[in-house]
Amino acid sequence: MKKFFALLMLIPFAMICSCQKQESAAEQQLAQRKAELDARDKALDERERALAEREKVRARAPGIPSDVQSRAQVRDAAELKAERERRLQQLPPELRGLIADPSQGRDQSDARMQERLAQRQRRTEELQRARMAHAVKPFGAEATSSTPSPAMEATSPSPSPTPE
């Protein structure tokens, strides 16, 4: 009986000890995660402070007026064009002929555009003339003509009897 009683007491004691070990391991993991989270929070706070400081510096710095910016862009475009021309002059004549001249391309496209516009205008005029030539004559003019034209006879359908 004593052995049985000792066994009954030993089993719950072992269970309590194992639960305490599991709790301590869980507490250690929780403490480690909390430390990592605190470190992340501190890093985030530092980033936010740095960003706020940069924004303050930008707000204090005088902005460049847009007029000055546009002048700089125009000047830069002129400088780029001059630099391109200078480099083209340094090339041998054989190679210069291989490089396309942008103004020449514009001239050709303008000439093609003018030619297309002229063609379109001619076609429109021809179409109007054709319509005027084949225009339907007024009703009174048709009644005076007793013989229909052969083209009209060929295209007009024969009358079909309609039931009444």
Key structural traits:
elongated; 164 residues; mainly alpha; 0% strand; 6 helices
Number of strands: 0
The value of Rg in angstroms is: 48 Å
* Helical content (DSSP H or I, runs of 4+): over 70%
Shape: elongated
What is the CA-CA span between the terminal residues?
A: 126 Å
Proportion of beta-strand residues: under 5%
Estimated structural class? mainly alpha
The quaternary organization reads as single chain
**How do the helices and strands follow one another from N- to C-terminus?**
HHHHHH
Helix count, per DSSP?
6
- Biggest β-sheet: count, sense, barrel? none
Question: Could you name the ranges where pLDDT drops below 50 across 5 or more consecutive residues?
Answer: none
- Overall pLDDT confidence: 78
Structure summarized in a few sentences:
By secondary structure, the chain is an all-alpha fold.
